[in-house]
Amino acid sequence: GGLMVEVSTRTVQSLIASLTRYESYSRTVTVQYFDAGQPVGSASAQIWADGGWSRTDVTLASGRVEHAILGAGRLWLWYDRESTVYEGPAEDLSADLIQRLPTYEDVLALDKSSITSAGYVERDGLPCVYVEAVRPELGYTERYWISETSGLLMAAEAEKDGELIYSMSSHEVVSPLALDKTSGVFSLPDGTELYTPGAAA
After folding, report:
1. Strand 163-174 relative to strand 53-59: parallel, antiparallel, unpaired?
2. pLDDT per residue over 92-102, tens digit each?
3. CA-CA distance, 119 to 124, in Å (whole number)?
4. Cβ atoms within 10 Å, residue 2
5. How far, in Å, CA of 46 to CA of 44, rounded?
6. Closest Cα partner for 183 from 196, 174, 200?
7. Do the beta carbons of residue 81 and residue 64 sit within 8 Å?
8. I want to staple 40 with a disulfide (CB 3.0 to 4.6 A). Which of 35, 83, 110, 142 is the partner?
């Protein structure tokens, strides 16, 4: 677009922070794990977000489904076929849920000195801001692609000692949320509705 500013390893984080982000959207995220170059597992997540609330359904490699609703500084977490709902402050997040799904905030949290490359690239037909970071003490190289359109992380991968260990991609981003399809998304298994999309409008 007309907003192409020069991007460098020093300025890329402030550029990403300033992107306009979708406030209301749904999308699917897929994560694949590798060992010695071979795929060893995957997880997929369906994510809905609206008005600062998010709902994530993660299907683990085992087939188990983990559900989480995050909003108003709190987290509700439960698993398929289990009626127990864990609830607590969002910062006490014991689940790996959030660790498994990198976000643009992970890029903002990178140590500036670890960023080795930055620029504009196209990824899956979308204009993206690209960031590469190296953490030599761990032998890791991390790469991130953030969509200029949505401000969301569209893809990420990590290598350790030159071998791919992790790959994440995002698909089917729909914004804003289709309200007719999101009835009950922010509800607990017992039917308690924590948040109604579009209510803030």
Report:
1. unpaired
2. 665 555 556 88
3. 16
4. 3
5. 7
6. 196
7. no
8. 35
Contact present, 156 and 102 (Cβ < 8 Å): yes
CA dist 126 and 57 (Å) reads 25
- What element of type H or E holds 45? strand 38-50
Reported pTM: 0.86
CA distance readout (Å), 61 to 42, 49, 64, 138, 168: 5, 24, 7, 26, 14
Report d(CA 25, CA 11) in Å as an integer: 27
Which segments within 113-189 are labelled E, that is strand? 115-123, 126-135, 140-147, 153-160, 163-174
Q: Residue 199 pLDDT > 70, yes or no?
A: no
Q: What is the pLDDT of residues 149-166, one digit of tens each?
A: 999 999 999 999 889 999
Structure tokens given for 35: 């060992």
In the block, residue with structure tokens 């009626």: 83
**Residue of 168, 173, 172, 174 whose CA lies nearest to 30:** 168
pLDDT tens per residue across span 77-133: 999 878 899 999 887 665 555 556 888 888 999 999 999 999 999 998 899 999 999
Token pair, residue 104, equals 């643009």
